[in-house]
Design goal:
Number of domains: 1
Strand order of the largest sheet: 3-2-1-4-5-7-6
Mean pLDDT: 92
Strand content: 15-25%
CATH superfamily: Vaccinia Virus protein VP39
Number of helices: 11
Structural class: alpha/beta
Low-confidence stretches: 1-5
Order of helices and strands: HEHEHEHEHEHHHEHHHE
CATH architecture: 3-Layer(aba) Sandwich
């Protein structure tokens, strides 16, 4: 695997490569992609360079201003647009069956009703449309807090049932009418390896990337990863709603 000059972290690279391959499998041509809570466009610009058409929906005017600058610098004007709003505004902004793909990365944890947000995402997808969901997992947060010496905080986090674990995330997606295509743990090992070690050891980046890819669907490592990536297909639409 070639290593870019300004490298993303191993887990970021793994996620973007994974999503790029999944979209290529489902949409060989350009897809209409909605990035909910996409912020400054880290994912959106990466997907736009592959030929997809991106709409980033985010509540922050500052983030959208940064997105506009980033889009211009990347030469992607006309391929990425920003709209102020949040998951509750999806239907008003996009309309029923108005998109091929919804990206929802690290948003489910902060919405008032995850179930309602996922239902809204399903409603804006066309038949055959897909969801890319990235959500934090409670067990990994507990481990990280404890390893950093925040023992009392780790205990409170473990007791907080409003935080997701692997099975809860999968259940929420399925209850919204999605069919799970694949689920991968992201950063299960790489997020615990010091960056200095990865940068100083020749070949360490590529080896760590390969390890992440190999263990990402292992049941144990997937459940312990900091975040879970779920790629899911929306249920078939009736002719009246397609």
């Amino acid at each position: 695997m070639p290593e870019p000059r300004r490298r993303r972290s191993v887990s970021q690279t793994h996620l973007l490569n994974l999503l790029s391959a999944q979209l290529a499998d489902h949409f060989p041509d350009a897809a209409d992609v909605i990035d909910v809570g996409g912020g400054t466009g880290g994912v959106a610009t990466a997907m736009a360079t592959l030929g997809h058409h991106l709409t980033v929906i985010d509540p922050s005017p500052d983030a959208l201003a940064s997105l506009e600058r980033r889009t211009a610098e990347a030469g992607l004007v006309g391929h990425v647009r920003g709209v102020q709003g949040d998951a509750n505004d999806l239907l008003d902004i996009i309309g029923p069956a108005g998109a091929d793909v919804v990206i929802c990365h690290r948003v489910l944890e902060v919405v008032d009703s995850p179930a309602e947000a996922l239902t809204a995402m399903a409603s804006v997808l066309r038949s055959g449309g897909v969801l890319s969901l990235l959500a934090s997992q409670r067990h990994s947060v507990v481990l990280s807090q404890a390893l950093n010496g925040h023992i009392a905080l780790a205990r409170r986090t473990f007791a907080d049932r409003n935080r997701f674990d692997h099975d809860q995330i999968i259940a929420l997606v399925q209850q919204a009418g999605f069919e799970i295509v694949a689920a991968h743990g992201i950063g299960a090992v790489s997020d615990h390896v010091p960056e200095a070690l990865v940068e100083s050891e020749p070949g360490a980046y590529a080896e760590l990337y390969a390890l992440e890819d190999e263990i990402s669907q292992d049941q144990t490592f997937r459940a312990l990863a900091p975040v879970l990536h779920v790629f899911a297909r929306a249920g078939q639409k009736s002719p009246a709603t397609a």
